[in-house]
Q: What sequence folds into this?
């Protein structure tokens, strides 16, 4: 892995085209444009993008719930994967939410996505259960992961 210097900033609606392009390249069942627009507009969401110059190369979509920050979507353009982009995005999210001691972090990840699971474990997430048949494209199970707020 070659680490890359990226600028992390808050995403807005003007970034939708670039978000959608990465999403379609990164996932077999991509989120719709309206799903992203909804999250970007919610005051309880933190949506961050990683930029190399003016190019969006990755993003994290995170929503605040009563007891947790839910990491809902993490994607990195395939040409920029394994260069520390997802790590930089998640670490910035943790910095921004550090003062919120009441909430931990949760996410779901495909049980077959070993690279992502290793990344999340490296960042302090632990397995907490399985959601059976969670993914609609192939009914694959999702691993539920949790990270305490104090890490």
A:
């Amino acid at each position: 892995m070659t680490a890359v210097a990226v600028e992390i900033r808050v995403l807005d609606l003007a970034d939708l085209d670039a978000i959608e392009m990465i999403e379609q390249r990164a996932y077999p069942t991509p989120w719709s444009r309206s799903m992203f627009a909804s999250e970007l507009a919610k005051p309880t969401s933190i949506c961050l993008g990683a930029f190399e110059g003016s190019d969006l190369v990755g993003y994290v979509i995170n929503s605040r719930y009563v007891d947790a920050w839910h990491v809902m979507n993490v994607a990195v353009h395939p040409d920029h994967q394994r260069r520390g982009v997802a790590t930089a995005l998640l670490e910035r999210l943790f910095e921004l939410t550090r003062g919120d001691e009441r909430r931990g972090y949760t996410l779901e990840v495909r049980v077959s996505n070993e690279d992502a699971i290793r990344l999340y474990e490296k960042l302090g997430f632990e397995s907490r259960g399985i959601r059976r048949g969670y993914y609609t494209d192939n009914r694959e199970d999702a691993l539920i992961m949790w990270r305490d707020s104090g890490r």
